[in-house]
Structure formats: C-alpha cells, structure tokens
Design a protein that fits this description.
Elements (H helix, E strand, L loop, with lengths): L2 E5 L5 E5 L6 H8 L18 E4 L12 H6 L11 E3 L12 E4 L5
Parallel strand pairs: 1-5
Antiparallel strand pairs: 1-2, 3-4, 3-5
Length: 106
C-alpha cells in the first residue's frame, strides 16, 4: 500500500497509507487530516482540496484536464506550478512517498 506524506502549513507531517486507485483527497478526509475541505466531495468543482505537490512527484503525475486547470485559478492561496487538486490525484505504487503540502487557506 503506497504512503503519501501530507504537510500542513504549520509543518505537521502526516503519513497516509492509501489503497491504490484512491484519491489523495479521499485518503486525507478518511484520516481526518485538517486543512483539506473538499466541499464538492471530489467532483472537481470547488478547489477546496488544493495541494502543492513536491518534486520529483509533481513531474510524475498525469496531466491535468481543462476542468482542473480552470478550478486551480479559483484557489484560496496562490496557484503555483506544482498546484493540483487532490481529488484528481489517484494514488498508484509509483507515487509511494509522494509529499504534498497543504496551503494555509482553502
């Protein structure tokens, strides 16, 4: 089972064990991780599951579609080159150890 590391704005690190095919958002919500709202429940319609994906994993992710790209213009914190919506990040074994940082505001 892959592990994903989530870092909150205050520096708290939480390691999530995630079943393949589960989104980072689903895993974070299931674990009670604070700072990830996911108001739309993973429908890519609210941008409240925004994360910053650290390298080298950011370059290994599937390309975002037009909907995710548009939603990232609506985030509470500034969009960065490594910004993604965690509802669109499906975990695979290739992403084992991936680090995502949560913004201060969703």
């Amino acid at each position: 089972m892959p592990n994903i590391i989530c870092i909150t704005p205050d520096g708290q690190r939480t390691e999530l064990q995630v079943t393949e095919g589960t989104s980072v958002m689903q895993a974070a919500l299931a674990s009670g991780l604070p700072g990830l709202n996911a108001d739309c429940g993973g429908a890519c319609q609210c941008a409240t599951c925004h994360v910053y994906v650290e390298q080298p994993w950011a370059d290994q992710l599937a390309s975002m579609d037009e909907t995710e790209d548009a939603m990232l213009d609506c985030t509470g914190e500034p969009r960065q080159p490594n910004s993604r919506l965690s509802c669109q990040l499906m975990v695979t074994t290739a992403l084992n150890g991936m680090v995502v940082r949560l913004p201060a505001v969703q």
